[in-house]
């Protein structure tokens, strides 16, 4: 019996599923991934059923009130990363990387390509918002592809058929093309489904350069950065900034290597980067 809080054996199952949807172009050809039968696929499907059923406009506003008070914890940045790494799920210790290893691999791949240091730091921080799991949030309110709430759900969103279960899909305030928004109002005016992207953006918004903030805030918004499904809500500035989101995405998806990074060797470099851009402690 799958639980509604944690249908996935590990958060990695969502990321593995994204990778099978968007394989690295030069390496694999895209198969019809849904015809692929596996127990993991069933848990991912169940995960999306819950996500699409419960992520309503009201749910998102409620989570914003709850978490954007930042009254849960105060930690140094590296301490927040160690806190994130206490997230133990049923991932396979032989093949799966822990959260800190994924973040370091992403950041190191960005560094190896000679990008600016704030881009490297973004790679290191981008999944820190997953600490939401440690505050007891269900998986479907932490990870998963994100999408705008308060307007019609695009059929380009993965498993969009499950939105039939979402009350907003039957509410005329929220089920039209623009819903509560104006045409091309800009994503800064749009509420996204709640999860680790928005939470991290809100933690970091006073400290990092704007392209970094876009990468953090929209890295799971696949229906836009891969499918262009919400051009009608974006403004020209969003399109400019999404060039950075697109630049970031391959590092997130394709930097996973079975060779784990040596944390102790890398820590001094990242502690310096943290000190350059971020305050001594963060309020979560
Ligand atoms: Fe992420
Ligand atoms: Fe990631």
Automatic annotation (TrEMBL):
Known cofactor(s): Fe cation
The UniProt keywords, alphabetically, are: Cytoplasm, Iron, Metal-binding, Oxidoreductase
Going by the entry's taxonomy, the superkingdom of the source organism is recorded as Bacteria
| Cellular component, GO, one term | cytoplasm
Stretches for region Disordered: 1-38
Q: Which organism is it from?
A: Spirosoma radiotolerans
Q: Where in the cell is it found?
A: Cytoplasm
Question: What main location does UniProt list?
Answer: cytoplasm
Q: What InterPro entries does this protein map onto?
A: Inositol_oxygenase
One Pfam family hit: MIOX
Q: Which SUPFAM superfamilies match?
A: HD-domain/PDEase-like (SSF109604)
Protein name, UniProt field: Inositol oxygenase
Q: Name one GO biological process term.
A: inositol catabolic process
| Compositional bias per record (Basic and acidic residues), positions renumbered to this chain | 23-38
Q: Which GO terms describe its molecular function?
A: inositol oxygenase activity; iron ion binding
């Amino acid at each position: 019996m799958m639980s509604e809080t944690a249908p996935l054996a590990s958060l990695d199952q969502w990321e593995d599923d994204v990778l099978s949807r968007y394989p690295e172009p030069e390496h694999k050809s895209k198969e019809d991934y849904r015809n692929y039968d596996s127990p993991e696929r069933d848990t991912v499907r169940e995960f999306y059923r819950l996500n699409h059923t419960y992520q309503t406009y009201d749910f998102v506003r409620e989570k914003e009130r709850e978490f954007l008070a930042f009254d849960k914890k105060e930690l140094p940045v590296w301490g927040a990363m160690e806190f994130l790494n206490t997230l133990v799920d049923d991932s396979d210790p032989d093949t799966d990387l822990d959260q800190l290893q994924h973040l370091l691999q992403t950041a190191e791949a960005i560094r190896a390509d000679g990008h600016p240091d704030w881009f490297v730091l973004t790679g290191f921080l981008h999944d820190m918002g997953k600490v939401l799991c440690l505050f007891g949030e269900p998986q479907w309110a932490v990870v998963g592809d994100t999408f705008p709430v308060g307007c019609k759900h695009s059929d380009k969103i993965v498993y969009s058929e499950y939105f039939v279960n979402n009350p907003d899909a039957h509410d005329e305030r929220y089920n039209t093309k623009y819903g509560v928004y104006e045409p091309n109002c800009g994503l800064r005016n749009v509420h996204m489904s709640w999860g680790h992207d928005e939470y991290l953006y809100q933690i970091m918004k006073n400290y990092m350069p704007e392209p970094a903030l876009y990468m953090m805030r929209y890295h799971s918004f696949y229906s836009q950065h891969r499918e262009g499904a919400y051009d009608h809500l974006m403004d020209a500035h969003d399109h400019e900034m999404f060039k950075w989101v697109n630049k970031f995405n391959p590092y997130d998806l394709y930097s996973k290597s079975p060779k784990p990074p040596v944390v102790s060797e890398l820590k001094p470099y990242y502690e310096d980067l943290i000190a350059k851009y971020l305050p001594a402690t963060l309020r979560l």
